[in-house]
What we know:
Layout: H1 22-35, H2 52-55, E1 67-68, E2 79-84, H3 87-98, H4 105-122, E3 145-149, H5 154-160, H6 164-178, E4 183-185, E5 189-191, H7 203-210, E6 214-216, H8 218-222, E7 228-236, H9 240-251, E8 255-264
Parallel strand pairs: 2-8, 3-4, 3-7, 7-8
Antiparallel strand pairs: 1-2, 5-6
Helix pairs in contact: 4-6, 7-9
Amino acid sequence: xxxxxxxxxxxxxxxxxxxxxxxxxxxxxxxxxxxxxxxxxxxxxxxxxxxxxxxxxxxxxxxxxxxxxxxxxxxxxxxxxxxxxxxxxxxxxxxxxxxxxxxxxxxxxxxxxxxxxxxxxxxxxxxxxxxxxxxxxxxxxxxxxxxxxxxxxxxxxxxxxxxxxxxxxxxxxxxxxxxxxxxxxxxxxxxxxxxxxxxxxxxxxxxxxxxxxxxxxxxxxxxxxxxxxxxxxxxxxxxxxxxxxxxxxxxxxxxxxxxxxxxxxxxxxxxx
Length: 272
């Protein structure tokens, strides 16, 4: 599989309306910091959910920084990730997922969107040109790509108070639709009772944990039949969970194009 872009740079014209004047924006930020003190989720610096230095690997630039990730699990689909899973990115993602730092969505949503866009535009023979930015496909037609989040364990969702990866996928899909990419999120996978948290597991344990740990989620699962699908997650390490997700989705009749994640333990190099 080549990573050569078939449709040019991944950047798209901004559709964001002008924000408030800098003086007003700074004043509101100061007021919010006084009323609700916050610190950087990665380094602890005051007054920012993620300080400028720690956010640098996740911030958007001209073109795409998403790159193919290295995986070791048999059957893992090709996966694009925006950042390396190390340093402040790793610390921030752990805080976001396990310590209730939903305020980091501001950085993680665009990072996942960038990885999804790279997977669609750069995946040779995966996506027709009309799925590139500015293409002619519309949400709901035959060209719509379904983003399927890797599901969390029910106990984890209850503990965290939300489906973190699902929320991330929905935010990324909304951003991509504003850029002209026809994508929808479908919760087509369900987590089995035997699924454990992957944190701290070695490669063999991850593979054993992921095996037969996912299933098709009822009516939502029926929506993937014959549809182009991208699996999305926050982090990819060995790729064992993505391999299981791809196996289940293909068994349900989906066309699995690949996968996208915010960060990866291994990346094969820059594609931008």
